[in-house]
Amino acid sequence: MKSFWKKSSLLLLASVMILTGCGSNNNEGAATPDGGASTPSDKPYAGTEIRFVMAVHPWLDAIKTMLPEFEQKTGIKVKVESFSQEQTSNKMAVELNAKTSSLDVMFIRPLDETKLFSKNGWVEPLGKYVDNDQEYDVKDFIQSSLDTSTYDNQLIGIPITTEREILYYRKDLLEQNNIAVPTTMDELMQAAEKLHDPDKGMYGFVARGRKVVAVTQFSGFLYSFGGQFHDGDQATINTPEALAAFKYYGDMLNKFGPPGAINMHWTEAAAAFAQGKVALFTDADAIYLNVADPSKSTVSDKVGYAMFPAGPAGAKPYNVSSGALAISQFSKNKEAAAEFVKWATSKETVLKTQTAGNPGARQSVWSNAESTKDYPADLVTVINETTKIGVGIDRPQVIGVAEARDIISGPMSAAIEGKDIQAAADKAQKDFQALIDKEKQAQ
User: Which residues of 77-100 are buried (b: 16+ CB within 10 A; e: fewer)?
Assistant: First the structure.
């Protein structure tokens, strides 16, 4: 569409020159009926339709109510298609593999798809659209959230949702037992041990324990103990730091967790805490309503929020973007698609979507009291402080993320069950290295 306007302008100029018999450039602009100079249209993409494919998500519900505003402002029509996450991922993979030109904007899961989509050449680098746009102000985004959507120094997605790993705790129980809010891993374990009283139906600590889904929550413990999933193309699952993290996480759930902790996803873990059965709980801040909403929690008025405790390497919780907007490399409407992405992630729009309950990635919005008026005050403080120290990755940065998480869950499960961590970690190290090598050879 942009080229159409350029061609039209050239044809118009040529026509004026022919009609006036003048081939010089004395006329700075074509005359308009009122004698003024013509100006470019303020809606250069008017009449363009872009197709946006996204998984069903609360953010999408909020943005749909604002679409008429964007369409009226730009003249761009946005056709939205939404499916379940699995259907969305499958649909995008099929269309991108076929280089379908009708797919313009898409929702991606940066932590799972940044490397895959970048390696396959499926996404348009976004730097040229946002880097020099001062009004858009890409530097306003929390840096770790941009890191999540960056590959080989190319930004391929603009974050729309974020989440951080924090500590939930029972204010009443800590106060009654004269326990300070834990700030270190040692203090967290000591508090869990003191508050653990299974005979009275009270358990000291809970977190995700179910294999693959627990790996992301384990990441904060791994980083805080000085470990990592891999160092470039070298797996690091059985390093002393990783082994210490596995042992700590396993001991916390094995010794102080509720029955069945090894099979818990965040839903079960949050429910146990919300039912008043657990004193301490680590997970994402994005799920806080599950323990703070009186309709879901029997302890809603007793919940406290704190920074993730520090380990030997300091406090290193994840601070990630769980969803982002990207533009297909094969789109025939890239400029119009970029206009939509910038509008949907602008300061004004993010303020509206965040006020509606969708945690965004703009620091200026988090600093705006309007966006957090319905959040607990101590949670807002924790969120703002975590953005300064958080790690922008909560899982292995490989193409086969699901397979890698399954491998890494081996020593974690062994630790929770009190089994041989070293043997499980050595096996995971070997299997994960084989996966890394296989992907490298396939490039």
Answer: bbeeebeeeeebbebbeebbeeee
Residue 318: strand pairing partners: 391
Q: What tokens appear for 170 in the block?
A: 């029972």
Q: Note whether 136 and 342 are within 8 A (CB).
A: yes
Counting beta carbons within 10 angstroms of the beta carbon of residue 121, is it exposed (0 to 12), middle (13 to 18) or buried (19 or more)? exposed
- Tell me the pTM: 0.84
Residue 256 DSSP SS3: helix
Q: What is the pLDDT along the chain (443 residues), one digit of tens a residue?
A: 444 333 344 333 343 333 333 333 333 333 333 334 434 567 899 999 999 999 999 999 999 999 999 999 999 999 999 999 889 989 999 999 999 999 999 999 999 999 999 999 999 999 999 999 999 999 999 998 999 899 999 999 999 999 999 999 999 999 999 999 999 999 999 999 999 999 999 999 999 999 999 999 999 999 999 999 999 999 999 999 999 999 999 999 999 999 999 999 999 999 999 999 999 999 999 999 999 999 999 999 999 999 999 999 999 999 999 999 999 999 999 999 999 999 999 999 999 999 988 999 999 999 999 999 989 999 999 999 999 999 989 999 999 999 999 999 999 999 999 999 999 999 999 999 999 999 999 87
Walk me through the domains of the chain, giving residue ranges and CATH numbers. 49-162+319-389 (3.40.190.10), 165-318+398-442 (3.40.190.10)
